[in-house]
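Table S4 entry, DUF4920 domain-containing protein.
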Amino acid sequence: MKKISILLLIALFVFSCAGKKEEVKWDESIVVGYYGEKINNENIISVEEMMNQLNESDSIMVKVEGEITSTCAMKGCWMNLVLPSGEEMRVTFKDYAFFVPKEGMEGNRAIIEGKVKRVMTDVATLKHYAEDAGKSVEEIAAITEDKNELAFEASGVIILNSDEKSL
């Protein structure tokens, strides 16, 4: 009986240690800021992998890293990330609960976690986004058709210094 108790204790100890995950450490000096829900740098997929997953589903929950091409100049209420095709994916923030910096983020990298889906964005909304981005009257007037695009609703964002490479 004593042997069984000892074996049970050893097994319990081994299993309790095996379940612990080691946190991925990184240099906090590369972080420009955390926005929204606190997220980490674990289980990130590439934008390319996200696109592959979207071939199988209209919407998915992911954590992805990409380059910021622009942010809302009015409030910081959205940002765009570049896609492999060169097009941009608009990132908005869940429940309009947080914002990112309005300027100076272009070229930085962002880790975003949330839901991405395919949407049809109407002309009025596209013009609104163009106004927020500070586009010219001519550029805004040239928007005449709805656009089929990807929309990402982020629950959390980490912006990284542009001098740093992908994690």
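Confidence is low (pLDDT under 50) at residues 3-24.
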